[in-house]
User: What shape does this take?
Amino acid sequence: MLRKCLVFVLIAVVFTLSLQGVLFAQQVVTLRVAHAWEPTFIEVQKKFDEEFMKRHPNIKIQMENYSWDNILEKYQTQAVAKTLPDVFYVHCSWGQNFIRSGMLMNLQSLIDKDPSFNMKDFFPVGFTPFIYKGNIYVVPYDCGAIILYYNVDLFKSAGLAFPSKSWRLDKEFFEAALKLTKKDDKGNVVQFGLDRGPSLDYEVIIPALKSFGGRFINEEETELYLTEPKTIAAAKWWIDLVVKHHVAPTPAESQGLVEPFTFGKVGMTFGGSWMLERWVRFGKFKADVQEWPSGPAGRFTSCAGSGYGISAYTKYPKEAWLYLKEYLSKEGQIFMWGKTGRGSPTRRSAWASFEEAWKGLNVKAFRNAMNYAEYVRPISPVAAQLNQIRDREIQLILLGKKTVEEAFKTIEDESLPIMTKANK
Amino acid sequence: MVSKSKVSQLMRKEYRDFWLFISPWLIGFIAFSAGPIVAAIFISLTEWNILTSPKWIGLENFINLFRDKVFYTALINTAYYTAGSVTLGTILALIVAILLNQHLKGITIFRTLYFLPSVTAGVAVTILWLWIYNPEFGLANYFLSLVGIKGPQWLFDTRWALPALIIMSLWGIGSNMMIFLAALQNVPQELLEAAEIDGANIWRRFWHITIPMISPTIFLVLVMSTIGAFQTFMQPYVMTRGGPGNATMLYGLYIYFNAFQWWKMGYASALSWIMFIIVFVLTLIQFKLSKSWVYYETSEGR
Assistant: This one.
């Protein structure tokens, strides 16, 4: 009898355990997470995912890394087919299009319910392109202010003092740009004082104009101020750096050189924290950073970044939120971007690790600038079209085909109907 | 004598083989070309940003298109580019094919060398040309400087940017050259010899025998090159993004910008249909005109 009982108990135990195993196996969730990392950074990502899976054995992370060349088309196709990854990378310029098209899950209630997320730890400006009607759809992982980069070696050889916080655009900055520009015996420029600023592209147009009392676009993106006299005067000052003083390369001179600063033949340029890797770590010269010099109207700058969102079509919102929360937690940001120096974290608490990664450099300048930086604009769904019009016209100014007044009038005339339609 | 049933059996087998061999192309065409073409008709009548449901707007896209200044610019640029690249490309391909049709020692090496650019990767070649056209240190202006000419700004000059793309298109004449070479080798030698005996000089033999005999090939090359030129996208996309101004805004690039950069798939589909109609009409005209100059070696003659 006892033997029979023992066999019965044994069978019952084995049955229960195997049933648990089946149930447990069913609970393992595969989460697709998409990134746009360069090959060298993928290993860091893999390590994070491995650690995450150890902490959460019921979640399997399937990493997908998309090439920057076709990532947008890929997302568009996946969205139509409702096969978007559960968690995916979102660039600031796509945020509003993705949100308004219903691709992204509204994260607001999850953030509100979860005190461990600690919204106060974030620089608020980083959320700008990822909010719609007061709700957050994407959590930014990096947000960098656009500040001044300078080639230390070129400054030293020119006998110039390094840029300081007290620099003014129309004084020290301009004088340094003049002195750093060098010509050969035939009169050809062999070294430029500056790059990028005069292009008035999407990252620099706001601070460039504002520093001289001009303005570009309002926050609602319903108005442009390009025909205002102060804006025209501000733009002329920047454009003259190319066309009159020739301290910055013309578009033709920089053709084929994606970022002339990289080649060590340019004294100063403007960029975000994500350029540290290329310009400082891999450059064959010593470089450092300083805040954007102030202009007659004050000190301004812009900022930009990217984040991660959860697909509106995900079957695993709970697990996706868990991943996103840990990925962009203080520890996650330190592991991914702080310690590696890959990008300036959006959490204040993760900043010390980023500064440590770039020890010896004035990276505090990025953090200081975050206190007054405005997000790059436009960010509305028609931003790409507006940027194309602006870039086209500014190129014509730099090529001497149009005056600032003519080009800015064209930008307004072509952009305003598009903006009006988008805001309807 | 073969029986009727045997013939019918053979015919059935031939039919079956025909459909079998053509089926991979047919399936691919229906799935990846015909489907999207038909869908584009519907999409062109909607406002669609790809991600949300299309909104029916009737002919509004087509009406807006005729009010769009860039549409006309893109159309004129494309016509200019097509005329330049097709004319120069065809003439040059024919000249090179004639030169390579000589029975000389080592001619196959030259044939390979001339064909090689056609098989090199598109974007890499485009970047190579970007450097060639660099106004400061590019090879184009360097060679011009050797003969005392100050070269233009090429891709940064609104007058020179499109001609620069036309010149660059000649890089890919290798494929057409090969087609011409094959055609030239099929010109009956007895006709050329007979003409020579009759006293025809080299030019007369070329003009009255070679050209008529290869005219179907010239026609094919013209039609295919025209269609290809109208669809040119990669070169302006990589090199100029349509600039400076809109000097190199070709039609294909404008469609791409609207569809994938500005999320206006409905408008892009309307643009595509207009392009299809233009290319279709142009091809019909080419076919109509071909009757007066293309010689087919059939029982009906021309």
